[in-house]
Amino acid sequence: MMIKDFFVNIVEKAANEALSNKKLGQAEKITASFVCETPKNPEFGDFSVNVSSLARDAKMAPPMIAQAVAEFIKAEDFSVNTVSGFINFKLEEGFLKKVVEEIIREKENYGKKDFGNLGNGKKVNIEYVSANPTGPFHIGHGRWAALGSSLAEILKFTGYDVYQEFYINDAGNQINKLAMSLELRIKELKGETVEWPEDAYKGDYLIDCAKRYIEQNSKEPYGEFAKKDMLRLQKDLLEKFETHFDCFFSETTLYKNNEVEKCIKALDEAGKLYEKDGALWFKTTDYTDDQDRVLRKKDGSNTYLTADIAYHKNKFDRGFEHLINIWGADHHGYIPRMKASIDALGYNSNNLEVLLGQLVNIIQNGEAVRMGKRKKMVTLDELVDEVGVDATRFWMLMRSIDTTLDFDVDLAKQKNDQNPVFYVQYAHARACSIIRKATEDRIDTETGEKLLPFVKKEELDEILNKAEVSNLFDKDDEKSYDATRKLILRLEEFKTTVEAASRMRAPYLLCKYASNLAYDFHHFYNFTRVLSENTELTKNRLMLVVSTKSVLASVFKLLKITAPEKM
Predict the structure, then answer these.
(1) How far, in Å, are 169, 445, 454, 456 from residue 441 at the CA level?
(2) Which helix (H) or strand (E) holds 86?
(3) What phi and psi values does residue 162 have, to the nearest 5 degrees?
(4) Helical ranges in 270-333 per DSSP H
(5) Which of 171, 366, 398, 505 is the most exposed place for a label (fewest CB within 10 A)?
(6) Which residues contact 49 (CB under 8 A, 6 or more apart)?
(7) Beta strand residue intervals within 337-430, DSSP E
(8) Is pLDDT above 50 for 372?
(9) Which residues face 324 on adjacent strands?
(10) Which residue has the higher pLDDT, 392 or 199?
């Protein structure tokens, strides 16, 4: 059980006992629900529950209610005090030791058993990136790739059955344009003079594609060859970027399997289609859309929406209970028509969740570089090569997706505490360094004499296997005592942070948590001597270092960045 739920349960039980003992004035039953929070003033305690909501039924002042309920709380490894309508709890050493022991026991599974009921095995399909196979990924695709892959890990960790999908838009006119553009590049390489239409793809990336077409002496249609070539490059980059899909779903399969026509027929039978001006219209205004939408144009071709409707029906038909789509903010108006189609086909549109993300600004030399005039790092591939996978992923995840992200390339490349990803990874490397140093032979700097390690590796393994903490605190050193408490409280916060990240679809909360944990660990190390001649104290403090290392590694795994042992 998570610690905040633990204290809520304690207050609920105590409130019911107070009610039974006629201590809550005129209240006849407990109708209020309680929430456990962290007090703004740490002097009050580590956790706090507001019971003022009982005042309406009890006809008592909140301070009196808090005192009445607190009388029935049996404190065990924590102390209780009341301020106004709040019941505050401060963890004592016994409770804090249990937190460390649980982390040592559970290792990379720490917290996992507390999340089983959150996802409860629900089958979730996350569709993201889904770029046209007409060229390299741009910077924005990197944000969706980082977000989608991290969110997938978070949902898996919290009990969901997650399936990651990339939708390939390969059935529209853009493939015809791609074929035409590749043909022109091939002709240029063969020395021919060509004229480029305005709507052609003129990117240099098609030069390499054209070279491969010529070198392979390919007889494949230009569009098919270019599509496969672009998709291969996209897949290679996604793998490099720690973004792994369970399925690359091709739009063309919807037409091959006649699913688009079946979908149109189903909507027609539901009475949701009509013809006007030679086009086929979908009555999306029957739902929440501001106007009806065309499914089939005058020339007989389908709109993008038509195949998208069939695609979403396909996902539900495959047994997914909940769909999550990650789109750019410019697709906001697309949501009502997609939800309308889901309801019209007999599914529940509440089971479609769309996350809208804002743009990414590249910052170089302290200034935002406009997309159209950027000479360097036009593509995600170039950005990754410039700053690395870990830095790119962490920076892409650092902010909530509903805010514009400023990606400072110069800062992301720095190897110091000013770079957020370096700062958090260095905390993990420092923990590894302390553990290595603890178990290595030592040299007396004055005499040159060889000394035994602070703790033999077998001893450390043994105490970690037992997972029993006896003493972590130096009560004679106030700064060390406070730093140790704060670090353990931060470690316990991992559970509530992961739960919030899962519920809110917000990996950025884990980036923020990692930064706070790194700060608390560095602070603890600065004020606490971990390795000393006091063997018992050294062993116990090493358990705290191992706990920190373990939790940081778990965060990094959810963010899909590496946990370096040396830096």
Answers:
(1) 60, 13, 8, 9
(2) strand 86-91
(3) -105, 140
(4) 304-317
(5) 366
(6) 7, 8, 11, 34, 35, 36, 37, 86, 87, 89
(7) 352-357, 360-364, 367-369, 405-408
(8) no
(9) 126, 353
(10) 392
